[in-house]
Design goal:
With about 250 residues, the protein is an alpha/beta fold. The protein folds into two domains: about 120 residues, Response regulator (Rossmann fold); about 110 residues, Arc Repressor Mutant, subunit A. The chain is about 45% helix and about 20% strand. It is built from eleven helices and twelve strands. The protein has a five-stranded parallel β-sheet with strand order 2-1-3-4-5, with helices on both faces. It has a four-stranded antiparallel β-sheet with strand order 6-7-8-9, with helices on one face. It has a three-stranded antiparallel β-sheet with strand order 10-12-11. Strand 7 and strand 8 form a beta hairpin. Helix 1 crosses helix 5, helix 2 runs parallel beside helix 3 and helix 7 packs across helix 9. The termini are far apart.
């Protein structure tokens, strides 16, 4: 997952960043809240981990919530054991409030717990992802559309799966590059745009099929389900809708 780690002094937080990366996360370090807020306006993250001491973490969260489409998880750490601060943090939309000092291992564990709870589709143990009329086989990297197989390259499959696992979220190009290619260094290239165009065409990701894959203000992409159109497009759903209408 993609994390933004804000700490007053980078030299004191290197161990935590390394531990989070060791747990499989992509960690972006920030010491200046203004830089983090500016980045959050154009980049997407799965979780913000904000140091309560040394920076105005509460103010950062308010800025994040008010200025962009940032509905991802937020954890405050290095917090004081203070009931008033706890109420302020949770009341402002934080998912967790970690009182310090605390071990790096515990922070990593609590980050993982929050991400699993907020992203069950991503962390599910099943080998299949069903989003009718699409069915993904995670093991074989195969996909069926209305029961018929569609040939995708490995990267096309991984990108499509990531978009479906994050249905309804705006994902920046840098986020997509890290998730699928393992690095955001290619963000200036057309890699993501080319692959998005291919999977949109191959999978028929259009409103008539119940889904819309659209560019988001030039910064990334958003896959949305359009329930009404999907119901009208699927034969079995169309019959159910007709039966329901005939009973009214």
């Amino acid at each position: 997952m993609r994390l933004a780690l804000l700490h007053a002094e980078y030299g004191q937080i290197g161990g935590l960043g390394s531990a989070l990366e060791g747990a499989g996360h992509h960690v972006h370090h920030y010491t200046d809240p203004r830089v983090l807020i500016r980045e959050a306006m154009r980049e997407s993250f799965d979780l913000f981990l904000l140091d309560w001491v040394g920076v105005d973490a509460g103010g950062v969260l308010r800025e994040l919530r008010s200025g962009s489409d940032t509905e991802c998880s937020v954890i405050f750490f290095n917090c004081q054991d203070d009931e008033g601060e706890l109420a302020e943090a949770l009341g402002s939309g934080a998912d967790d409030f970690i009182v310090g000092p605390v071990s790096i291992r515990e922070i990593v564990a609590r980050v993982g717990a929050i991400l699993r709870r907020r992203n069950p589709c991503y962390f599910g143990s099943t080998n299949f992802l069903d989003m009718p009329p699409y069915r993904f086989d995670v093991v074989t990297k195969g996909i069926l559309v209305r029961g018929a197989p569609v040939a995708l390259t490995d990267k096309e499959f991984e990108l499509a799966l990531f978009l479906f696992r994050n249905l309804g979220r705006t994902l920046s190009r840098g986020h997509l590059l890290e998730a699928v290619w393992g690095s955001a260094l290619l963000a200036v290239s057309r890699t993501v745009d080319t692959h998005v165009s291919r999977i949109r065409k191959k999978l028929g990701l259009r409103p008539e099929a119940g889904f819309r894959l659209s560019a988001a203000y030039g910064n990334g992409y958003r896959l949305e389900r359009i329930v009404d159109n999907w119901s009208a497009d699927m034969p079995e759903r169309r019959g159910a809708v007709s039966d329901a209408r005939s009973m009214t």
